[in-house]
Each structure stands twice: as C-alpha cells, then as structure tokens.
Give the backbone structure.
Amino acid sequence: MTPDMVAELLRQLIKEAVTLAAPLLIAAALLSFVLSLFQTLTSLQDQSLTSVPRLGAIALILLAGMPWFLERMATYTRVLLGDFRRFLG
C-alpha cells in the first residue's frame, strides 16, 4: 500500500466521520446557544437546565437519524471492503 492510498483512505474516513457527526454537533451548538440566551434573559443559572435538554435532543436526533447513520456506515464499509484487493496488492 502506497502513501497515496493511505492518504486517500484517511481522507475518505475523515469525510465520513464529519458527515456523520455534523448533524449532532450543529444541533447541540444551536440548542446550547438558545438555552444560554434563555438563561441570560431569565437570570436562571441552573446547570441541569442546559444539560438535560441537550442530551434529550441528541438522543432524539440519534434515534430519528439512526437509519441514515447506519446506511452511511454500511455503504462506506461495503466500498472499503470492495476495494480491499486494491489496497493489498
């Protein structure tokens, strides 16, 4: 396996990781912003007010998006294993 092949594999892996993580990270960031704004406007400083809704939202996104997440990972794995001979020889 040449260094170019390794670089290509890592590029594809990072692209898939970013694609899968982006919806969760964007939702968590937006929800954190909204909750921080709400806390600032109401002068509430309870830590559970930000943690619990964020965890709940992430859990809901994971449950709702699980078919898409699994399909993306399965497709990536099929492509990777389909090209396995190219990487060995």
